[in-house]
Amino acid sequence: MVVLVALAIGTTARAQDVTTHPEMRRVGGGVYVPFYRVQDEQDSRVEPFLLDLRPVTNGEFLDFVRREPRWQRSRASELFTDDSYLSSWSSDLDPGEAVSARQPVTFVSYFAASAYCASLGKRLPSEAEWEWAAYPSGTDSHSEEAVTARILAFYSRPRGSLPEVGGTPANQWGIQDLHGVIWEWVEDFNASFAAADNRQDGDRELGRICGGAAIGADDVKNYAAFMRFAFRTSLEARYAIHQLGFRCARSLE
Question: What angle do CA 197, 200, 205 make, to 5 degrees?
């Protein structure tokens, strides 16, 4: 599987970055080759940035809704959340005994995730940043085969209680849980859309035929990337889904 050009720079975290933001890790820059190009989309230059070590937890999101009451379940605007928003919690300020404070928070909309990050002076990562940070490299638990196996096991796992954060090995950037725990919101989740099914007579654009969009993929065998791409294109910003959470990023000045 080749989805990125390995031109990473600055892979060692700078001391000041770790000291200032100990909950984050520095991701070195490089060139991200999109898994699926939209129209004339070009490779993306990813500048070095900071990314949360782990997904945001129920406990952390509880602190947020205490600070920002308008994002509590009973008060959140229907413009920014759907009926499933924080539906796994017992009440506005009580996740309940069945929900661990160390589990990743899910059932949160894009708007709520963005507001959380902004409240801390952060933002959601872009798709290019997330994919770049999550790309498997190295050996052993960091290898492409090991990560792919973890992803596919996650995809096949029945819906149920989520694991607590921090249970997967740190990757080459020192970041955990990018695969195998939850899906994650990205800032530009709706920037890519699969080609429409079009069977009009004489239409020779193969990407418009049902299933034909795979022709434009960087690696037609990369089932895990296909799933992420398809899942993102199915989302709306108000959606709150069982296995969909988030983590935050921060640009480096």
Answer: 65
**178, 135 contact by CB (below 8 A):** no
CA–CA separation, 122 and 117 (whole Å): 5
Give the domain ranges of the chain: 1-253
Q: In what order do the strands lie in the sheet with 249-251?
A: 24-27, 49-52, 249-251
Overall fold of domain 1-253: paralog of FGE (formylglycine-generating enzyme) (3.90.1580)
Quick: pLDDT tens for 179-227: 888 999 999 988 765 444 444 444 444 343 334 344 444 554 555 666 7
- Tally of residues, the chain: 253
